[in-house]
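User: Fold this; tokens only.

Assistant: Input:
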Amino acid sequence: MDIGNIIFAVVFYIFLGYFLVQAIYSIILVLMGFVQVRRRRFEYVHENYDTFARSFFIVPVTIIVPAHNEEVWIKQSLLSLLNVKYPMFEVIIVNDGSTDTTMDVLDSILQLRRMNRVFTNRFDCGKINGIFASGKYDNVTVIDKESGYHKAGALDAGLIFAKYQYILVIDADTILEPDALFKVMPYIDKNPDENIGIGAYFGLVNGFKIEDGKILEKRHSYNPIIACQNLEYIRNFIGARLTWSRYNAIPCVSGGFGVWRRNMLLEMGGFSSAFSCEDIEITFRAHSYMNKEGKPYRIMTVPFCVGWTEGPANISSLIIQRKRWHRVVIEVVTYYREMFFNKKYKVFGLVTMPYMVLYEMCGVLFELSSLVFVVIGYFLGVLSIKIFLAYFLLMIILNSLTGLVAIISYVILERSFSIPYILYLIVLSILDMIIYRPFLLIAKVKGSIEFFKGYRAGEQYKRPKIT
């Protein structure tokens, strides 16, 4: 064997080892997530929610909804909030410099009237142009502000006026389940001193029949782009966040649905508009802050579906969304690099951070390099096509296994999918490395390039009409 063959053999085994470790790690996480689903499901069945609902000590919640050019979704999202079954909550909608009819839609529903309120703008969130109360619902307020500070600026504006100690952040395209707060807030009630952040699962609303903020029919879309996202959400939720939650090592409480303790947000200076996305950054910052302060805390994910959000329905929109997601991963991981393999941050520093660096941030380099390596090796006659096909088949089998366990776990948890749709997802779990992952790779490459160019915009893809 000449030196060229030796080099190619070494490189091949490096790539093989990298992807095998990733696959094995994913399988372990999804199996542990399956255990968490069964345990949490048992707890849910035996939880006394009626007593919690009647309690004098129930935890009130402020729901903050940032909205920038959300005329398509804001009506249904707002009405879903007004349909929430919970004794005490307020809604603050922040119109973040919309240039469409978002404010007109809000006015038509809420009968807005301008308020004169004295406040201190303690954040760099942009000029607040007006504060409006609803003439129809006494627990709804609308803040009108200038844009240019990302979603974080809108959230900070809402934080200024929040009355309650716990803040629920949701997107303006989220349709909440009526019992969403009853599924989440009991976890706060059990340990309010330590539970500072809670996330949950939310699926894709694409294809649903919605009227007046109520889901009349859950018609899950068979569009392969949407279905692959559903599979990805399930795999990530069951196979990562639930397990990371068990060890207080969650890297991101999603901005689509996330509960945070208000005084902690204020102590940390609110959300940051210096990053492309606010959700992963505030989660990293919370881990960093609480550890440096030496305070006991928990950031967790609960295994319940609390709502539904609109997802990109075509390839171009998917790439726009995912390149921003990848860009912010690089932004946050590089900014908080001191946490990498730092035992001070426990499991988050020793397990989650290495995963974020090696697979979320740098994975695109390995994926691209492996493709180039395979092409060069094939044309030089060094890499056998049989070996490559065997390797690729192994990756498909391992990837399908994680998808299958995640789907089974989700069906046990929610049972919202029809049998034909479950079978469709199982087929996609076999094919997604061919029909879906390449687009994610393109998005990651674009996101990486934008990061190194210093691009920090928060693009918004065009929303499809609600069916």
